[in-house]
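Hi D.,

Good news: the full-assembly prediction came through. Inputs first.
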Amino acid sequence: MTESDTFRAEVRQWLEANCPASMRTPITSADDMVSGGSSISFRTEDHRVWFEQMRDRGWFAPGWPKAYGGGGLGPREQQILEQEMRALGCRQPQYNLGIWMLGPVLLELGTEEQKLEHLVPMARGEVRWCQGFSEPNAGSDLASLRTAAVRDGDDFIVTGQKIWTSHGDKADWMYALVRTDPQAKKHQGISFILLDMRSPGVTVRPIELISGKSEFCEVFFDAVRVPARNVVGGVNQGWAVAKKLLEHERAAMSRFSEGGAPSLDALATAAPYLVGAGPVWRDRMAAALMDQQAFELTVHRLRDMMLARQDVSGLSSIMKLVQTEQESAKYELLQQLMGQRGLSMEGDGFSTDEHAVCRLWLYTKSYTIAGGASEIQLNIIARRVLGLPT
Amino acid sequence: MTLLLNDEQRMLRDSAQEFLAARSPVSALRALRDRRDERGYDPELWHEVAGLGWPAAVLPEAYGGLGVGYKGLGAVFEQVGRTLAATPLLSTVVLGGGLLTESGSAAQRDLWLPRVAAGEALLALALEEAPRHDPTRVALRATRVAGRWRLDGEKQFVLDGHVAERLIVVARTAGALGHRAGLSLFLLDPAAPGVRVERTWMVDSRNAARVHLEGVQLGDEALIGPPDEAFAVLDRVLDRARACVAAELLGVISEAFERTVTYLKERVQFDVPIGSFQALQHRAARLYVEIELLRSSLAAALEAADAGRADAATLASLAKARASDLSEKALNEAVQMHGGVGVTDDLDIGLFLKRARVLQQTFGDGSYHRDRYAHLRGF
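Then the structure:
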């Protein structure tokens, strides 16, 4: 047996002993997705056990050094752990933006003090993080952000507003982009800061969407004091830090969706409504399923290419666009196939599927806007992949 | 499964690319058209192609085949689409060779397969009778008369039918029009009494024949496989052909798209390259996305054909539907983005458009394959 075989056997044995059976089933709703932090809650005792076992093993952040609360595993060992968790169908013990997005950046660019202060509690699931990037006037054009951070002794004083902050109302800390030099060119006067959401002057307001209540929030800063030691990567160097952070976004998003962000099986949901619906609906349904299969095969091919160490820069640039447009189109189709029965979000007289389709039809409109709108994705493909001139 | 080519398949693709660029660029098709070539393909080119082993690619090793599979042959078809080379690869190897390999008698296989592998004999499949592809709409009858078969009826869109040494005729021996049961395959010498083959000129400058049969007499030795039961094997071989046509379409689409992107960078209007306009950039980016989705679907279809997997039919329909639909969109966009020059015969884009449309109709377009896909997925 090689060393990695031994490790694999150990991991398997440990997971079998410590992952309760109910934590080896697919999640069925967003309520099954536990995030750490001071507002943590568990739907079941099994979930608490699974969370605590993984935490104590250091496997929330298996690849981080043990000194920062991680598991100290090498790349090959991390891969084995992921494979074994997938093989057993283990759920993510928690969904953690801090560990998946901010953590790698702090490991690379943070000061020793920042690492000890933030990575250790992060790796214990004690702090929940949110992201403060977008502003009302800085959406696709993120670098035009205006939230000001003005130096005052050992602190910065932050004034302004963030928007589209997921779970801003439940987060303990925020990593944010703020403007520290209003005179500089717009990409050059930005800093990346860590901000305690319990600071005086922070107000959070959840946003109601066309689909009803949502995880998105507005966050207002009224002269919030942030210690200068909470700047990551240097004052006015924030844009480069943010770009680094976004490199981890795709991996983080795939963890979120692997856990199964709520989604309905298109054909199973459609089946009762296709009966007697006629050939046009059959054709539209077939086209939607074909799109879905073509995308799944493309995910497969992308993985094959990465394993073979081929250049995936072109292919990976299409993934966000295709996935979000297809998901949105899927609910558009289901809603129309259901006709008037797909047009109610609540109350009696409609099935759970009908309510879900109506809500998701509206909710998935945000998919093609958030995280780089489809038009931005098309710009990237046209300019970076096809090399068309600006 | 892996959706990438292995070393051997990659070498085959690279050699096809190199060979076709040198030996059969688009200008070769143009010359074939301009001299109204009676055969519709270049026998010398075909001889050289045989030397490279393409006809042998998917045939059994016992008959001189190389066994590199449909993934390898698909990579060749993609290159064929890029230069619009006119070869009888589909009719002779994928269809003719495929059907004889699957169902032919020992005598038929021994006689024909080595000659197919060596590029010495051309075969053609006489299937279609209706304007649009449907392998069950077969009315051409084969009736039993005094211990022999008598064939009467007409076929159309028989690819390479007028140059083939043998035709494989799909005939109805039982059942009604539209039934799967009751179809049989016959190996027919086009020189036999009662056979009339009429060459037609398709818009892509290649050929497809009409075949008229009247009182054609055949013995049992002409049957390929048992009578009445040919549909399953026919559809299986058609699925490989659909995947190969989709591969050729991917080549046609990719080449036309790359030429269009180049043009967008070079063509200046209003003092800037037109490729700097976002209206055109986004349309080009959308085509790029669709091409990548097609590439994955096609790779899976070819892989499933080689592995003989149960989902080979579903994947063949997926690939052929996407290729057909995208070819329509992509070639229309290629013409439009080239502007006035795009509708002139001087520019090659028109030749790509024409080949794309013929391939779109070959063995089922998007609507045919969406319907089939829905059946196969059980709704």
